[in-house]
Structure formats: C-alpha cells, structure tokens
From TrEMBL:
This is histidine kinase. Residues 306-394 form the Histidine kinase/HSP90-like ATPase domain. The lineage of its organism: Bacteria, Bacillati, Actinomycetota, Actinomycetes, Kitasatosporales. InterPro entries: HATPase_C_sf (IPR036890), HATPase_dom (IPR003594), Sensor_HK_TwoCompSys (IPR050482), Sig_transdc_His_kin_sub3_dim/P (IPR011712). Signal peptide: none annotated. Keywords: ATP-binding, Kinase, Membrane, Nucleotide-binding, Phosphoprotein, Transferase, Transmembrane, Transmembrane helix, Two-component regulatory system. It comes from the Bacteria. The keyword Cell wall biogenesis/degradation does not apply. GO terms for molecular function: ATP binding; phosphorelay sensor kinase activity; protein dimerization activity. SUPFAM superfamilies: ATPase domain of HSP90 chaperone/DNA topoisomerase II/histidine kinase (SSF55874). Residues 193-258 form the Signal transduction histidine kinase subgroup 3 dimerisation and phosphoacceptor domain. It comes from Streptomyces xanthii.
Length: 399
C-alpha cells in the first residue's frame, strides 16, 4: 500500500515538472496549424496536473492559472483582425485567432481544477482559489484580448467560473451529507450493540444471582437446625455460580473476538432446548415450574431461539425474586406462523416488580420488538403476574 502511494506521489510530481515544457509545445506549432488544435494541445497538457490536483488542488490551480497566462502571452499571432468574429480576430482561413481559443480552453481547465478545490478543501482554501482565479482571468483577458472581444471573453470566463464553483459546492454538499449519514449509522450501530450486550448480561446474570440469593437465604436459616438442607443449598449456590461464571466468560470471549458480521451470539447454545436445565435451576431456587409445549417443535432461527430462551429466563428470575410463590406455569406454543410464550404466576403481582429499575421487562420488550413481535407484561385480574410474547416465525424451509 505504501509503495503504491509513493509511486503515485512520484508520478504526480513528475507530471508537475513536465507541465511547463509540454504546455509550450503546441504554442510553437506551424503558423499554418489550425488555431483550435493549438488550443486543444494547451488544454490537454493540463492532464499532467491530475495527480497534483488530487493531492493539492490549490497548488494545481495556481500552476494552471500561471500556465494559462503564459500560454496566452506566448501564443503565435493569428491572422489579421476581423471584427465580425464574436471572439476576436479571424485568420485568413476564417478560423478564430488561436490566442482567443487558447485563452478560453486554458481558463476552462483552470475552472475544472477550481471546482475540485471547492469540492474537496476547506472554505479558506477554496475562497482563496476563487479570488486567484478571478484576478488571473480578469488580468489575462484585459491584457491579451482585443477590445471587441473583451466583453464576450469576460462573460464566458465568468459563467464558466460560476458553473465550476456551483458544481464543486454541490459535490461538497453531497459528500458532507453522505459523511453525516455514515456517522449516524455508526452511532446507531454502537448504540444497538450496547443495548444488545446490556440485555445479554442482564438476562444471563440476573437469573443466576436470583437463585444464589434465595439459596443463600435458605442456607443461612437452616444451617444449624437442618445441616443437610443447608449443604444442598450451598451446593446449588456453587453450581449456579459456576454456570453464571462460564456464561460471563463466554460473553467476554465473544466481545474480545472480532466479528465482521456484528451479529454473533454472545452466549452460544442458549435456546429453548436449554429450558429443562433452566427449570431445574429454578426448582433449586424453590419455585416449581410446570412446562407445557404445544405444536410441532421445529428448528428456529438463532435470534428467535435465543431471544425466546432469554424471555423465559428473565420471567422466571422475576418470579423467583418478586412473586413469593412456590410454583408457576410456562407455556411454549409452536404455531404455524409464530412462536407464543406465556409465563404465569399467582404471586404478588406488579407491586414488587415496580419498585426496581424495570430493566428486565424492558429488555424482554426490546427483544420482541426487534423481532417484530408483540409483547405484554402485567398483573392478572385474578392475581399474580403474566408475561406473553408472540414472535413471528419464517416458513419451515427458511428456518
């Protein structure tokens, strides 16, 4: 990459060095040469400035303006003056004087470089370029143009300069708008990724911490009177701590690993197939879970499977922490076009849940909304709390 950049820089400076020599070659062509051909030769010599114009457009503009003035001053004289031509004198063959053609075409080249300067450089630089262009073109036309062609040349030069500036400003605005859109997209992607990580960490840790809290309380109460139950509670705490720690390690490894797609699961393997393990952990925390599965089970997209598991996990964690009941019900229904989840308990309802920050319910709702589904959470009329989620499913072949 550095070698390519160096070779391009060398070619750009070589083109700048050759420009003065190539510029003067068409000016010393035979007097019989068509004047327009001499003018085209002067204009095409500016191709050597392309490399410099990409790197330093202000320098390329200064060189182009100086080259234009030199080309106009060194032009071969044309035929005798004929006022009928709108651009000045005409030669014996009826063509316009080469000096006028050289002046116009060379100034057009300078205007193209000016447009590039306006599009790519800060305001101070392109304003300086506009001032230099106006001064150089006005001076060149005033000194080298004939009286009758002065107004026509000045008008055309001014129009060309304005057009180049307008095109440059348009390109500049488009580039700035595209840059703003890219920055906004990056910001939104970072925010979405932060929310995704926050949801994963919350759902992963909250259930384990809830189980540990319940079991440690049990162990503290029965450690002297029922040591066997205290030992079982401590073993459950140890196992839950190990599982939570493994999940955290997987998350940290996933965060450290570069992921070009940006959608790798933070905790591989977490899905509805893990519900039995989750239910066993919840039972260890003192809450029996009655699980019912309906419909034909089938493979689910990874994001749907992972989100469904996290929703059940967070809902059960809330039951353990807040409901104050010994049992709850979990229903998983594989319907034709959607997955339906329902977690119901007969506990204290929304009173205990509303005292916290509400990140758990917020995270569940965000997961369902990202999957274009429907989410509901609230107290039941007959008492207790109910969480529901409907997640659209693709066709069986698309899964």
């Amino acid at each position: 990459m550095s070698e390519t950049t160096g070779s391009r820089g060398t070619a750009a400076w070589c083109g700048l060095a050759l420009y003065p020599f190539v510029l003067t070659v068409p000016l010393f062509a035979s007097p019989d040469t068509v004047p327009l051909l001499r003018a085209l030769g002067v204009a095409l010599s500016a191709v050597l400035l392309v490399g410099v114009a990409r790197r330093m457009p202000l320098l390329a503009l200064v060189v182009a303006l100086l080259g234009t003035l030199v080309a106009t001053a060194l032009q071969p004289s044309g035929g005798p003056y004929h006022p009928s031509g709108p651009l000045g004198p005409a030669g014996p063959d009826g063509g316009y004087d080469g000096g006028r053609s050289v002046t116009l075409l060379a100034f057009v080249v300078a205007d193209i470089v000016l447009g590039l300067l306006v599009a790519r450089r800060p305001t101070r630089q392109w304003v300086t370029g506009v001032v230099l262009s106006v001064l150089a073109q006005a001076g060149g036309i005033a000194v080298f143009a004939r009286g009758e062609s002065l107004a026509a040349l000045a008008t055309i030069a001014l129009l060309a300069l304005l057009v180049s500036c307008m095109i440059g400003l348009f390109v500049r605005e488009r580039a700035e708008h595209a840059s703003a859109l890219r920055r906004r997209a990056v910001t939104e992607a970072v925010t979405a990724e932060r929310l995704r990580i926050a949801r994963e960490l919350h759902d992963m840790v909250s259930h384990g911490i809830g189980v540990i809290t319940i079991q440690s309380g049990v162990a503290a109460r029965v450690v002297e009177t029922r040591p066997a139950e205290a030992r079982a509670a401590l073993e459950a705490i140890e196992q839950t701590s190990r599982d939570t720690l493994r999940g955290l390690r997987r998350t940290l490894v996933a965060l450290r690993r570069a992921d070009p797609d940006g959608d790798a699961p933070l905790t591989p393997g977490a899905g509805l197939a893990e519900l039995d393990v989750l239910i066993a952990q919840t039972a260890d925390a003192g809450v029996r879970v009655d699980l019912s599965r309906t419909g034909t089970e089938r493979p689910l997209p990874p994001d749907v499977d992972r989100s469904a598991y996290r929703i059940v996990q967070e809902a059960l964690a809330n039951v353990v922490r807040h409901a104050g009941v010994a049992a709850c019900q979990v229903a998983v229904a594989y319907e034709e076009h959607e997955l339906f989840l329902e977690i119901v308990d007969a506990g204290r309802g929304a009173g205990a849940r509303s005292s916290g920050t509400g990140f758990g319910i917020m995270g569940m709702e965000e997961r369902v909304r990202l999957l274009h589904g429907e989410f509901g959470a609230g107290p039941r009329p007959e008492g207790g709390f109910r969480v529901t989620a409907r997640i659209p499913l693709p066709e069986e072949g698309a899964a």
